[in-house]
Specification:
- By secondary structure, the protein is of the alpha/beta class.
- The protein has 17 helices and 29 strands.
- The chain has a 9-stranded mixed β-sheet with strand order 4-24-5-23-22-6-7-9-8, with helices on both faces.
- Helix 3 packs parallel to helix 6 and helix 4 (98-109) packs parallel to helix 6 (165-183).
- Mean pLDDT is 84; it is low at 9-15, 133-138, 141-148 and 541-545.
Length: 650
């Protein structure tokens, strides 16, 4: 029987236009197929520029797209003991280049992330380091490519005088955003903080990647602070919000109390005037004895065509017919007919009434939120810096994002068990915001995944010098990641002190993973030309043998955890999956891995020999999988296991 290799891949399916539009919005422009983008997708070199519509173009864009399609070369390995409550938590912190990390997460988290918030490096002409290749540990990679010197000090800058100023930034962002889109659920959202330097380019890039129709808002954050001396002081930053599919999100659920809204607007061709007769007894918030006749109102003009609008005891004294530009005429008819009325947002209409000027208004039970695009004031930047200083004991991040802002974003869209990802984690503001939200609203179990490049701190900067002293005091390495993780530890402890009643309910823990080389060697064709080399190559291809990385010791529990993590990711199981070890099957150790979002069990055995009793006694449900070493199982036992479920070998 031919064995299923752990390394097998599936081919993409041919889809109809609407499905293609959902899967690859970058291929669609003006509701037509963009042939340039289609050829880029399949690496075609030639195209007719006359066939290409409006598009954001820069030299190297095609190569940047290829980076998103590239398969992961590395893996994630657990850093046991570096987290908090590791056996119970569902929260994840990952150290590594976010492009490669996103590739590693694509299969296990694809279509499962409800919200992404990122605060990418702003293109200010200063340094940003984000490698787009992965072959060795991050420190070696950065040194090898000349991005840092032997001491880890950054050598790469992107000055505005460079002809590649915008291109380098777009090269960095495009593949990461393409992979981010693949992580989102159908009703998922992504928030991206940005300043004026790249807001326009980012908007065009996101229109292409997420689809212009899925743009939701350009939110404006008033920082209440500016250090710039120029023609204007820039107090604002942008937060672009895109939806994975605008058809899946029509409203933001939440809110309590009563809201008041208008029921008429200016008369126009799109909103022509029509008559409506109101009965006597409608609430009228005008002084007793008020009488309105004829035409009244300025922008939203109304004309009484029959009867009079008379106030007596804060009610209309008689029926009155009014011609105006109604916005809720059908709802008014139903309401005054004695029916229960629910508006398009699912909110119950309580009352239609006249204000003191005779304009018709309505009150509703709030069940939806409609946040303004000008965000509420979250306080001065200095306030957030001070709050972080109080938590960590010093100024280590000069411009942290406001916890209340990301708290609000998460409260709009995240529900029980939803996942939020931040792959430019920085000081881990997002993690603290989610923990505080879980503590305050009793929903409880939202989960986060933080990703941050472990950039070494530069001792030449005063802020970094203070950060290094702080990290030395807690015996940690001199990287941004160590500050972010310590913030999460202290924020979680502080939240529990403020909410002691949630001690056994609230998840303030996290597991740490680090980007590393794969534990499974990719097959490399032989370079030898002799007959024996060719025979060996053919034999390896026939057996689909994929050797383990040199130095991996399957008698070492840490190495076993590393390999199990890589198997989980490649099989589509999340990092917070539950692993149960059993040794009751003929002395074979089998790990049963379950993921709450997947209906199957993954059985993994890394022993050197699979015993016949194990195959006989193992319990398989439909679609369960069994993974083992290729050399550990005979063809006969492989066939028996295949009759029970799907088997793959390493």
């Amino acid at each position: 029987m031919e064995r299923n290799s752990f390394m097998d891949a599936t081919s993409p399916k041919d889809e109809r236009f609407e499905t293609l539009k959902q899967l690859y919005p970058e291929l669609i422009r003006d509701n037509k197929l963009n042939l340039e983008a289609l050829k880029d997708l399949f690496d075609e070199e030639s195209f007719d520029e006359g066939e290409v519509g409006y598009n954001l173009y820069w030299p190297g864009k095609r190569d940047a797209k290829k980076l998103a399609r590239k398969e992961a070369e590395g893996t994630l390995e657990p850093v046991i003991g570096d987290g908090v409550n590791e056996d119970k938590t569902s929260n994840i912190y990952i150290e590594g280049d976010n492009l490669e990390v996103l590739r590693c997460l694509k299969k296990s988290y694809g279509g499962r992330v409800k919200m992404i918030y990122i605060d990418p490096p702003y293109n200010t002409g200063k340094d940003f380091i984000y490698p787009d290749n992965f072959a060795e540990p991050i420190e070696d990679y950065l040194k090898f490519t000349g991005q840092v010197d032997e001491k880890g000090v950054s050598l790469v800058a992107n000055p505005k005088s460079s002809g590649a100023y915008h291109r380098k930034w777009l090269d960095m962002m495009l593949p990461r955003l393409q992979l981010a889109r693949e992580l989102l659920t159908n009703d998922g959202v992504i928030f991206i903080s940005i300043d004026d330097n790249e807001q326009a380019n980012l908007k065009l890039l996101c229109d292409e990647i997420f689809g212009e129709e899925n743009f939701a808002a350009d939110l404006i954050w008033n920082k209440q602070h500016s250090q710039q001396q120029g023609l204007f002081k820039r107090y604002h930053e942008h937060v672009l919000l895109y939806l994975r599919d605008s058809e899946k999100i029509k409203n933001i659920e939440g809110g309590e109390g009563i809201i008041e809204a208008g029921a008429q607007k200016k008369i126009s061709r799109a909103n022509p005037a029509s008559e409506f007769t109101f009965p006597a007894g409608v609430r009228f918030d005008a002084p007793d004895g008020t009488i309105i006749t004829g035409t009244y109102g300025e922008n939203e003009r109304s004309t009484i065509t029959e009867g009079r609008l008379i106030c007596r005891n804060r009610r209309t004294a008689e029926p009155v017919t009014i011609s105006a530009g109604w916005t809720q005429k059908k709802q008014m008819a139903s309401f005054f007919a004695g029916e229960n009325v629910i508006d398009s947002k699912g909110q119950k209409v309580i009352e239609f009434f006249f204000n003191s000027a005779g304009k018709i208004k309505c009150t509703k039970e709030r069940s939806q939120l409609t946040p303004p695009t000008i965000l509420p004031l979250y306080g001065m930047v200095s306030e957030h810096t001070e709050a972080l200083k109080n938590l960590l004991g010093g100024y280590y991040f000069p411009t942290p994002k406001p916890v209340p802002m990301i708290y609000d974003f998460a409260s709009w869209f995240l529900k029980e068990n939803d996942i939020i990802v931040d792959f430019f984690s920085g000081s881990a503001t997002t993690a603290q915001s989610v923990m505080e939200l879980n503590a305050n609203d009793n929903v409880g179990h939202r989960k986060y995944v933080m990703v941050q490049l472990p950039v070494t701190l530069d001792e030449n900067d005063d802020t970094d010098k203070a950060a290094i002293e702080f990290l030395d005091s807690i015996h940690k390495a001199h990287t941004i990641c160590e500050i972010g993780k310590e913030r999460i530890r202290r924020a979680g402890k502080k939240i529990l002190e403020e909410h002691p009643e949630l001690k056994d309910k609230l998840d303030v823990g996290f597991k740490v993973y680090r980007l590393a080389q794969s534990n499974i060697e990719a097959y490399k064709p032989t370079t030898g030309s002799d007959q024996q080399s060719l025979l060996n190559a053919l034999d390896a291809m026939e057996k689909q043998v994929t050797p383990l990385r040199d130095g991996l010791d399957l008698n070492n529990s840490n190495d076993i955890q590393k390999l199990l993590t890589e198997i989980m990711l490649r099989q589509g199981f999340a990092l917070d999956s539950h692993i149960e070890k059993t040794s009751s099957l003929a002395n074979n150790t089998v790990y049963c891995i379950t993921d709450e979002a997947r209906p199957i069990v993954l059985h993994v055995c890394l022993d050197n020999e699979i015993k016949s009793e194990t195959v006989k006694n193992i319990s398989f449900e439909e679609n369960d999988k069994f993974v083992c070493l290729n050399s550990a199982i005979s063809d006969e036992l492989y066939a028996q296991l295949s009759d029970k479920g799907r088997v793959e070998t390493i």
